[in-house]
Amino acid sequence: xxxxxxxxxxxxxxxxxxxxxxxxxxxxxxxxxxxxxxxxxxxxxxxxxxxxxxxxxxxxxxxxxxxxxxxxxxxxxxxxxxxxxxxxxxxxxxxxxxxxxxxxxxxxxxxxxxxxxxxxxxxxxxxxxxxxxxxxxxxxxxxxxxxxxxxxxxxxxxxxxxxxxxxxxxxxxxxxxxxxxxxxxxxxxxxxxxxxxxxxxxxxxxxxxxxxxxxxxxxxxxxxxxxxxxxxxxxxxxxxxxxxxxxxxxxxxxxxxxxxxxxxxxxxxxxxxxxxxxxxxxxxxxxxxxxxxxxxxxxxxxxxxxxxxxxxxxxxxxxxxxxxxxxxxxxxxxxxxxxxxxxxxxxxxxxxxxxxxxxxxxxxxxxxxxxxxxxxxxxxxxxxxxxxxxxxxxxxxxxxxxxxxxxxxx
Length: 410
Hints:
- With 410 residues, the chain is mainly alpha-helical.
- The chain has helices at 7-36, 43-71, 73-89, 97-124, 131-156, 161-181, 186-192, 206-239, 244-272, 274-291, 299-327, 330-360, 364-384, 397-403.
- The protein has one domain (3-407): MFS general substrate transporter like domains (Growth Hormone, Chain: A).
C-alpha cells in the first residue's frame, strides 16, 4: 500500500487522469457542437474530429513504446505532457472544423504516449505479485478524470470552451512536478545496461506471437468499447428518447462504475490470476451491454444498469494492460504495452466511427448496444487464447536473442 502512495504512483495516476478527462470532454461537448452548428459541425464532421483525435492517440501510443524502452520512460512522459497541454488549450481557438480536428490530432500524439508510459513506470515500481492491482489502481485516474469532466460539463455546457482550457492548464501544472519528483524506472536502468537490445519485431516472433495476437485483438475490442461508449453514449441515450440531463448523467454513472470495477478487478486478478479474471469481466460486460438496448422507464434502474456495465466494461480492458506488464520482461515491456495500446487505439478509432455512422443513418438504437455486446464477446475469445501467466519461454532479453535466427545480439 505504501508504494501505491509514493510520488511515482501519484504522478502516474494523475497523468492517466488527463486522458480520461480529455476523452469525456469531447463526448460531452459533441451534442452542443452539433446543436449550435459551431464552425459548421454536423454529426459527420464531429465523427471526423473524434476520429482524428484517436488517430493521433494511436500513433503516439505505438511510437512511444520503443522510444521509452531505448531512451527512458521519464523523458517520454514529460514530452508527451507538453504536447498534450499546449494543443488542448488551443482547441477553443480553432477557426474551422479542419483546424479543430488538427489540434485534436496533435494533442492526441502527446496523450497517446502518456498512458502506456505511465502504466509501464507504475508496474516497474511494484513487485510482480501486485502488478494487476497497480495497473488497475493507476487506471482509476482515467475514470476519475472522466467523472470530473462529466461533472464539469453538467455545470458548464453549453459553454464548452472552458472545458478544454482546464485540460491544458492541468497538464501544464503537472509538468514541473513530474520533472522534480518522478525518477527514472530502475527496471529500465537495469535493462539499459544489458549487453543486448531487443527489437520491436520480437513481438511477432514465435516465442511471443500467441500472446501478442491475443493481446492485440483483445485490446482492439476493449478500447472500441471504452471510446465508443464514452464518445457517443450521451447521443445514443438522446436518440433512445432520454433528455439531455439523463444522457450526461449516465456518462457519469458509467465512469463511477469503472472506478469501482478497477479497484475490484485488480484485487481479484492478483489473487485468482489475470487471465481468468479478464475472461469473466468481458463475459459479464457483453450481457449488460445488450441489456442497455432496453428502454428503462425508471431513471434509478437505468443508472444502476449503467453503473454495473461500467464496472465490467472498462476494467476488462485495463486487465489486458496488467497482463502485458506481467507477461513481458523489462527489456520489451514498454514496447509491448505501447503496441498493445496503439493497436487497441485502432479499435478506439473504429468504435466512435462505426457508432457515428449508425447515428447518421438513424440505426444506433438498439444496434449500437448490440454491436458493443458482440465486441465484448470477441474480446473474451481473444484473451482466452493467450498463455495463462507469461509469454511462454520469454523471461529476459537473452531468451529473446536466442529465439532470433542466428541468436545474435542486436
